[in-house]
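Team,

Forwarding the record for the chain on the shared tracking sheet. I've put the sequence and predicted structure together so nobody has to dig through attachments.
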Amino acid sequence: MHYEYNQQAVTTRVFAGGARLPAPRFEKFCSGVIMFEETLGQACSDGTSFVAALTTKGILPGIKVDTGVVTLPGTDGETTTQGLDGLDARCAQYYARGARFAKWRGVLTISEVLPSAQCVVDNASNLARYAAICQANGLVPIVEPEIMTDGSHGIERCAAVTEMVLAHVFKALHDHHVMLEGIILKPSMVTAGAGAANKASAADVARLTVRALQRTVPPAVPGILFLSGGQSEADATANLNEINAIPARRPWLTSFSYGRALQTSVLTAWGGNPNNVAAAQAALIRVSQAGLYHRPIVTRQGQPRSTIGASRGKLILKGVFLGI
C-alpha cells in the first residue's frame, strides 16, 4: 500500500499536477504513456482514472505486458523475456480497460562473441509472437529489442550487432504474419559500449544508427521511437536531434520513447516534496520539449492517433513517456 501511495503521488502530483493529468502542455510533446499493470487501474486524487485523464488530453494509454527477463539456458548468462503465457487474454482485458498499445522488451548484450545465435533467435521469436497477439486484440505493439550498452565494444561492433538483431526481428515478424504498418519499433541507438575507450560523437551515432535502420527496417513501419538505453538526458537528446538532422533517406518517422532520460531531472526536482511540484513539472516539459518542437503541423491517417510535430525541420512522432 505504501508503494502504491508513493506511485500515485509521483504520478498525480509530478506527472499530473495535483488532480490534473497530464502536466500542463505535456500533450504537445507526448503522444502516449506506457503504464505498468497496477497503474492502469489507478486514479488521480480527484477520482478520475489515469486512463480517462490521459485520453481526455489526446494521449494514448499503453501497457507493459512482458513479465521480465530470465536467464536463457544453454547461454553464457544471456536472457529471454517471459510473459507469453496467458498474453492473449490479458491483452483483451487491457484493451477493455482503455489501453491502446503495448510494450515488450527483449534484452541482448554485446561482447566479442555475444549475442549468441540462440539468444537472437529466441528474443526475435518472442517479440514477433507478442506483436501478433497484440494486433489480434486491437493493441499496437511496440517492438523493443534493446541492445545493452554494457561492455567496452566500439561503435562499429554495436552497428554490426544492431543490423543482425533487427534483421532477425523483422524476419520473425514476417514469419508470424505481423502487419508492419501496425507496429512501432523501439530500438537502441548505435553507440559505443559504456566502458569503451573512445566515446562516439553524436554525428557518428546518428550516421551509424540511420545506416543500420536503412539496411534492416522496411519502409512499411510507420514510426521508430528510440529508447534512451541508459544515456543521460543530454546525450539522448543530442543524439536524437542529430538523427533527425542527418541528410539521409528515412521512410519512417523518428522520435523518442524515453524513461530514465525523462525522469531523472523530474524526480530530482520533485524530491518527494509537494512544494516542488511546479519545478518538477517544468523539468518534465523541458526535457520532453528538448527533442521535439511544440508546434503540430499535420496529422496522417492510418497511424495510432499520433500527431506529428517538427524537430529541426523534420517530421517526427511525438514522444512516448515510459514508466508510470
